[in-house]
């Protein structure tokens, strides 16, 4: 038994959905759309066992191919009649199958069954991936990542992982007082699960770390496809996986943003940062086609004397979904220098309390899954 989402042209929708519903004993039609914008938003919100995509719709919207090729669910491309571009689009899409010809109604469901993720495999609870991102450096991104991970572990009483994906200049290990011998650079793609488990470092507390490379030149060796496999592996064992991303829009960052369930976009109340964050939000919406609910804004260092008011920020960024973190002066820097997270060093500080409030809000959103207990990771 599996679910199917259908994306096809308006005049073919009824025929396709009716054909699939005749197989009600083996599949569930999760939904359908005649635009890729709606199909992508629906599938990101409620991931299907397989997406059945009409090649005619894709041919009219080829700008979507790159985005769809990074989907976390399998895709089968359907063509009423093949044209020279169908196979090329299927290949670029990384489609699991291409169905066409006069016997498509007979061939379709067996093809979907071969590639779909069945319900019994989807019953296993996966953790939530939270990407902490900013298009500008120096805004407190790593401080938020480390302390939010600790606060989430406190709230959920479940294991939490920080993946340091600022591969060239990551500071997560130093901020937590860790000196890893192995890093993400040492993951063996041919033995991925075992090598990832060996590399993950357990801190003294409830949070584990997947460290960034030890040398900046090693950053380019980490491939996006391998990163996606790593994240799919670890989210089965952690309630939350917090990604501390580098600034920018290189392939690895984009893959991480695509996989993330929620993007916490960090900014500070200054003109330069607000301009770059406004551009980032437009990119997320118009180019990456992320749904609005995937993006959450974090305004750091509120109360700073910059001359920019909260109302100005909301008007510039056109959002009400915002967390606010107060300025803490040199306190975060002193904590980082000591290799002790702020939440442990200064538990009563207003910034610590604000980060705990963010964690509380995120944990409240996950309330339906609180009965599930994540396995504790085995020590290597």
TrEMBL record:
PANTHER family attached here? SEPTUM SITE-DETERMINING PROTEIN MIND HOMOLOG, CHLOROPLASTIC-RELATED, SLR0110 PROTEIN
Organism whose genome encodes this protein:
Sulfobacillus harzensis
Annotated SUPFAM superfamilies: P-loop containing nucleoside triphosphate hydrolases
Single GO BP term = negative regulation of cell division
Protein name stated in the entry: AAA family ATPase
Which residue ranges are recorded for the region named Disordered?
A: 360-380
Q: Name one GO molecular function term.
A: ATP hydrolysis activity
Which intervals hold domain AAA?
128-282
């Amino acid at each position: 038994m599996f679910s199917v989402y259908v994306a096809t042209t308006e005049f073919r929708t009824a025929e396709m959905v009716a054909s699939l519903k005749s197989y009600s004993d083996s599949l569930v039609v999760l939904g359908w759309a005649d635009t890729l914008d709606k199909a992508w938003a629906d599938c990101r919100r409620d991931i299907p066992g397989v997406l059945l995509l009409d090649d005619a719709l894709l041919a009219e919207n080829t700008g979507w191919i790159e985005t769809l090729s990074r989907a976390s669910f399998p895709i089968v491309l359907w063509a009423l009649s093949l044209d020279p571009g169908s196979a090329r689009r299927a290949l670029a899409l990384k489609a699991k199958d291409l169905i066409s010809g006069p016997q498509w109604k007979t061939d379709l469901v067996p093809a979907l069954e071969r590639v779909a993720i069945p319900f019994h495999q989807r019953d296993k609870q996966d953790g939530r991936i939270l990407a902490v991102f900013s298009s500008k450096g120096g805004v407190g991104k790593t401080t938020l990542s480390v302390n939010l991970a600790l606060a989430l572990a406190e709230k959920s009483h479940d294991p939490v992982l920080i993946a340091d994906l600022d591969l060239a200049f990551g500071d997560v290990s130093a901020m937590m007082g860790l000196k890893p011998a192995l890093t993400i650079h040492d993951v063996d793609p041919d033995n991925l699960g075992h090598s990832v488990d060996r590399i993950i470092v357990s801190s003294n507390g409830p949070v584990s770390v997947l460290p960034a490379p030890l040398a900046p030149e090693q950053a380019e060796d980490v491939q996006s496809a391998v990163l996606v496999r790593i994240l799919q592996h670890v989210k089965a064992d952690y309630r939350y996986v917090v990604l501390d991303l580098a600034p920018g829009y290189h392939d690895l960052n984009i893959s991480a943003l695509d996989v993330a369930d929620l993007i916490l976009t960090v900014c500070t109340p200054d003109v330069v940062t607000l301009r770059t964050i406004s551009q980032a939000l437009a990119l997320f919406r118009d180019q990456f086609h992320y749904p609005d609910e995937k993006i959450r804004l974090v305004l750091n260092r509120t109360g700073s004397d910059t001359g920019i008011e909260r109302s100005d920020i909301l008007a510039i960024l056109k959002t009400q979904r915002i967390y606010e973190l107060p300025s803490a002066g040199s306190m975060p820097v002193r904590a980082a220098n000591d290799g002790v997270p702020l939440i442990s060093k200064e538990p009563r500080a207003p910034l610590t309390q604000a980060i705990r409030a963010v964690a509380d809000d995120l944990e409240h959103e996950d309330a339906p899954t609180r009965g599930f207990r994540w396995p504790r990771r085995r020590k290597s």
